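Hi R.,

Here's the chain you asked about this morning:
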Amino acid sequence: EEHQGLRGMFARRLCGSDDLFRTRQRLPGASVNYVVSHDGFSLRDLVSYNRRHNEANGENNQDGHADTLSFNCGVEGPTADAGILALRGKLQRALLA
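And here is the predicted structure, written out as tokens:
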């Protein structure tokens, strides 16, 4: 099969990439493998909103998860405040590190 060789690599990455972390004296569980998903907040939304805002889609803001585990850094949604934008950027980078 064409993708046979990729299955093992995919499984290894899904299980924590032990081949990458073992050499750094870290267990596979030390990596972050999940932050956001397609059916929830984007990474930007995660640091910009404390609650969902799905009012425009006609479902009365009832769709999507209510428990977002997000932090708006002091302002709900878009802002021009340089300090808040810097904090949001820092948090996004930390979530990906």
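One quick note: The mean pLDDT is 81.

Cheers,
M.
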